[in-house]
Amino acid sequence: MENMEMGSSAGALNKMENNRLEGLQKPKANLEVFSETLQRLAQSDKNIMAVTSDSRGSGKLVPFGKNFPHQIVEVGIAEQNLVGVAAGLASCGKKVFATSPACFLTARALEQIKNDVAYSNNPVNVIGISAGVSYGALGSTHHSLHDYAALRAINNIMVVAPADNWETAQAIECAANTGEPVYLRFGKKAMPASLKPVNDEKFEFGKGRVITEGNDVLIIGCGETVLPALEAAGLLKDLGITCCVISMHTIKPLDTDLLARMARQCSAIITVEEHSIYGGLGEACAAYLMQNGICKPFQIIGIPDEYTVTGSQTEIFNHYGINKDGIADVARSLLK
pLDDT, tens digit, for every residue of 84-132? Predict the structure, then answer.
């Protein structure tokens, strides 16, 4: 990125690419990166289409609509129609991104996701926006703490929650070309450009990324919980406790090879998710480990089975210990 002064047309192309990458260096909401990536792909692929349910603004798709007015469909507040229209377009060869708040999309339109997308094998990219507790003070009606559980139980759909801006851009590119049903989940909070994994590995659905290495505690996060997991690892390192932090961006299919390998080398395991403690990342990891004879002190950090407290996303995270201090406390407790 430092070599910006290049001559020739190749140099100009490199400069354009560097400018694009530099735009990711400041933390952005993953939703913004979703919109930017979708626009970039749409410039060269007329089959890229966005379908929204009165969520063009909250989905950051206003620029997409202005720049590609013939590649966007607005169905209004009608999530079931959204998924049906998206499935129809996908069946005709379009690369469709059906975008709506996760709480409504994966509840009101669950039957359509199950039948029109997954069962019918229509390669729709179902984009759940403002996910988890992103809507904060709007309360439980607007929280999506069920989506991992509901969609994990449906055959033939991947479940993905990118952690940072880089993972988001890569996930959208993969989704545009995978030819399979995918559910992608995004929150509203600004996230790091890149959490800088140990190895600069290629992004793949179904392959987790090791962010830090360690042998004492394995911390597995997804989406916006990976950052506090990484921060907790920093706190624990100061106490002489080393942590392996994984961004398990694909909840389904789970990267069981990576999970087993890292679980065997650590003394305790923690999963962290912006989701109910039932049916999500934690239970997926626990089920695999237990059924394969890998038994270590284990705890799921997430939203318990209760009426969620009201507040901002940060306030809710702090209340339930989905922060660096809460995760570090659980780690120390497990190691005892």
Answer: 999 999 999 999 999 999 999 999 999 999 999 999 999 999 999 999 9
Residues in CB range of 141: below 8 A, 6 or more apart: 103
What kind and span of H or E run contains 284? helix 281-291
Q: Which helix (H) or strand (E) holds 268?
A: strand 268-276
Distance CA 239, CA 187 (A): 32
Cβ pair 149, 102 in contact under 8 A? no
| Unique residue bearing structure tokens 């970039």 | 40
Q: Which of 209, 258, 208, 214 lies closest to 232, judged by CA? A: 214
Q: What is the pLDDT of residues 151-163, one digit of tens each?
A: 999 999 999 999 9
The pTM for the full model equals: 0.90
Residue 187: strand, helix, or coil: coil
Handedness of CA 179, 156, 181, 288 (dihedral sign): negative
Measured in whole angstroms, how far is the alpha carbon of residue 125 from the centre of its chain? 13
Q: Which pLDDT does position 223 carry in this prediction?
A: 96
For residue 120, the one-letter residue type is S
Q: Supply angle C-alpha 32, 34, 40, rounded to 5.
A: 105
Give whole-number Cα distances, 186 to 28, 134, 139, 152, 292, in Å: 12, 9, 18, 17, 31
Q: Which helix (H) or strand (E) holds 179?
A: none
Q: How far apart are CA 22 and CA 44, in angstroms?
A: 22
